[in-house]
Write a structure and sequence with these properties.
Two copies of one chain form a homodimer. The first copy, chain A, has five helices and two strands; from the N terminus they run αααββαα. Chain A has helices spanning 13-20, 23-34, 51-64, 82-88, 92-99, and strands at residues 67-72, 75-80. In chain A, strand 1 (67-72) and strand 2 (75-80) form a beta hairpin. Chain A binds a DNA duplex through helix 3.
DNA sequence: TCCTTAGTTCAAAAGTTATTGAACAATTGG
DNA sequence: CCAATTGTTCAATAACTTTTGAACTAAGGA
């Protein structure tokens, strides 16, 4: 965990909701949820936005406490902060993901995902 | 129901999330949820924002499909669209309201609420 | 070392949302 | 009819957010 992340109790509901209210970020979260446990790098999301713009949206998600970004080599491995979100806002993430379409209807994103043992 | 409302299937998740991502609107929704079944008029929310600004936020909530506003005399009776939201996004509203603090910690708003038989 | 890959930072531009006050409309009570 | 109450609309402004491209850093491989 290299980049600045809020602690679990610093995660704010309005900020999380506002951050998830953007379609690009919601798509990122859906995709992360569909591959839960598998850290993904930014390149997985390049069909959702440009590289620069992705950097912006991924920073928003991280700063809101929705995702965790770990620097590994030149990559960032991105995961959902499910445990923290579930503890803080029980049921919220699941209902958002289910409402967003669950597993079906995912954008054709991410062939060749990065798997990491931990 | 006088003012324009989206139909249940027109309610969009990102729009609902973005609308709930504003602290003033989230406070309005919390308050509506705490008085569920009791239509409230705008004056109940005057400690959250100015009259003009409330009109703006209440319009946002209505246009997003989160609330229903019925014109009765010179008042608007405002209710949560819980049934439509629950059908469309099961569990979402409840988890948001619970995360926002549930029944405790409500702003000191609305003495003398407007009750209506229906 | 040099090149490539992965992602960030910066500044500018564009777009959107929130807030304000003044003026307005509609209903209700006297 | 007149005044008060309730809420809307409008235009202006302020404040944010999103998007962009160019320049950058840092790590890894040849």
């Amino acid at each position: 965990m290299t980049l600045p992340h809020p602690t679990a109790d610093q995660i704010s509901l309005p900020i999380v909701l506002a951050v998830l209210g953007d379609p690009t970020r919601l798509a990122i979260v859906r995709y992360l949820a569909s591959k839960e446990g598998v850290p993904l790098n930014c390149s997985k999301f390049l069909d959702l936005a440009s590289k620069t713009n992705l950097s912006y949206h991924l920073a928003k998600l991280r700063e809101a406490g929705v995702t965790r970004s770990e620097a590994v080599g030149t990559s960032r491995l991105i995961t959902l902060r499910r445990d923290d979100l579930d503890r803080r806002f029980p049921g919220l993430l699941d209902s958002v993901i289910a409402a967003a379409g669950g597993d079906k209807d995912l954008p054709a994103v991410g062939t060749a995902e990065v798997e990491v043992s931990a």
